[in-house]
Amino acid sequence: MTEAVAFYAFAAVAVVASLLVIAQRNPVYSVLLLIASFGALSGLYVLLEAPFVAVIQIIVYAGAIMVLFLFVVMLLNAPHEDTEYDERVHPLLRPGPMRFGASLALLLAGELWWALGRAGDSGRFPAGAVASVGAIGRSLFTDYAFAFEVTSILILVAMVGAVVLARRDPFDRSVVPQLEEEAQVASSFGAGGPAPPENRP
Amino acid sequence: MTPLLIAQIVLTLFVFVMLLNSAAIMVYVERKVAALLQQRLGPYLVGPKGLLQPLADVIKLMFKEELRPRAADPLLFALAPMISATAAFAAFAVVPFGGETTLLGLLREPLRLQVADVNVAILVIFAIASMGVYGIVLAGWSSNSKYSLLGGLRSSAQMISYELSYGMALAAVLLIGNSLSLTDIVHRQAGTWFGFIPRWFIFLQPFGFVVFLTAGIAETNRAPFDFPEAEQELVAGYHTEYSSMSFAMFFLAEYINMVTVSAVATDLFLGGWQGPFAETIGWVWFLVKVAALLFFYVWMRWTLPRYRYDQLMAFGWKVLLPVSVVNLLVTAAGVLYFGL
């Protein structure tokens, strides 16, 4: 009983927050709602008796990744996504995005139908395999060792790529303290806050 | 309602109130120790030896006007201090601060001195700490002020950088303790080597302890790593625009985070409540160890000058992280070959 109530509560939060992420015009609010959605998912993992997965969900997604998202959104400082164009045509009503969205939605519906149809044969997944850290570690480094290593190489490639992209010409400015950089960021993006005051009532 | 459940609820409220009090005590201690180090008197007028000074501070803060910049984002501006304070309180929930007790025979079943016994306690603390970052980042952004934004950005950059070393230092202890539960880890530190050296993990993990404490100071934004609120550069950093009780919430969060980091370090490295007569007065040992670490915190703040920001980043990534990674590798090899 309690479990069912908790499940519906978490599920409702996850779905509503996810919908609001795309319905939101302010990117900072979108990021926050996505964090809420991740939090609700983590609650669902707890209900599935996988506390380790739940906590990792919070640390990795809601904690580390979303902080970087928020960081970027704050630096870009775009309080409203291209409003001038949107006022004439809502982005979701333009023909190109509409077709793309429709095909994605069809794909998702098909996947859901396929997955729900197979819900019966859950016997293949050993119960309790995700319950303890030891069990997760063992299956990760034995049965799924190849996938694990491939993923780590993928992340390494992404890291090298980020370093290459962010690298500055070494003769340009070698050891300029970060403070100066920060000040430039702040002055080039204005104060960086939510929205310019004149837009407010 | 069983007596155990009632005792559990009382314990939860007790921990909440004690955390509030610990912040007040820390304010007093901070001011007195600062005065001591700077050859001043410190607070001495309000109450005996100035003991009521924190209370006076709180009353002063309560009667201040609650200000909000016109251009601030109203919702997030109000939400940010709440996130900070909530995360600070929530993190302590999984920290055990004593063994089991029956409250001198009052209860039939023993009560664990811990609000919530979670078997992945350490990771939960880590997760909640990473949620606490949002309070500071959002405060910085929603204030719509240059100083606040820079404070928020610095804090997120700093916390992300130091969380890595923090996690690596934790992982090494987990390997030795062979568990993610803080209670189990403390139990593994019972007893002594050669009859006089206590089996604390600090002796197995000296580097881990130093890394943990350093990263912990950086995580809680304390001097010498208090960049998010560096007064000389950023007025007051992320809480420049905050006043009255919403400022007090940030203040509270900072002090409670200090207590939590010290409590976790005590459980992980200093044997938690282990000590002579741990059965009855274990919590006293725990308090003494936490108090020692908190004193160290204050001592550091008033002894060391603030780093420069690029030094902070270089130190985090080029010194602390390599040390903690090597420490983790050596620990893993040791556990594998000697089966500690």
Architecture overview:
The complex is a heterodimer of chains A (201) and B (340). Helices cover 70% and strands 0% of the residues of chain A. Chain A is an all-alpha fold. Among the domains of chain A are: 82 residues, Four Helix Bundle (Hemerythrin (Met), subunit A); 44 residues. The longest helix of chain A is centred in the first third of the chain and has 26 residues. In chain B, the strands form two sheets. Chain B has a two-stranded antiparallel ribbon with strand order 1-2. Chain B starts with a helix and ends with a helix. By secondary structure, chain B is mainly alpha-helical. Classes of the chains: A mainly alpha (201), B mainly alpha (340). At the A-B interface, helix 2, helix 3 and helix 8 of A face helix 4, helix 5 and helix 11 of B.
CATH architecture of one domain in chain A: Up-down Bundle
3D shape of chain A:
globular
Q: Which quaternary structure do these chains form?
A: heterodimer
On the 0 to 100 scale, the average pLDDT of chain A is 75
Which structural traits does this protein have?
heterodimer, A: 201 residues, mainly alpha, Four Helix Bundle (Hemerythrin (Met), subunit A), 8 helices, 0% strand, disordered C terminus, B: 340 residues, two-stranded antiparallel ribbon, 4 strands, 66% helix
Q: Can you summarize this structure?
A:
The complex is a heterodimer of chains A (201) and B (340). With 201 residues, chain A is mostly helical. Chain A is 70% helix and 0% strand.
Strand and helix layout:
The complex is a heterodimer of chains A (201) and B (340).
Chain A: H1 2-23, H2 27-47, H3 51-76, H4 83-88, H5 95-117, H6 133-141, H7 145-166, H8 178-188
Helix pairs in contact in A: 1-2, 2-3
Chain B: H1 3-37, H2 53-62, H3 74-92, E1 100-101, E2 111-112, H4 121-142, H5 146-177, H6 182-187, E3 192-193, E4 197-198, H7 206-219, H8 231-234, H9 244-269, H10 278-303, H11 309-338
Antiparallel strand pairs in B: 1-2, 3-4
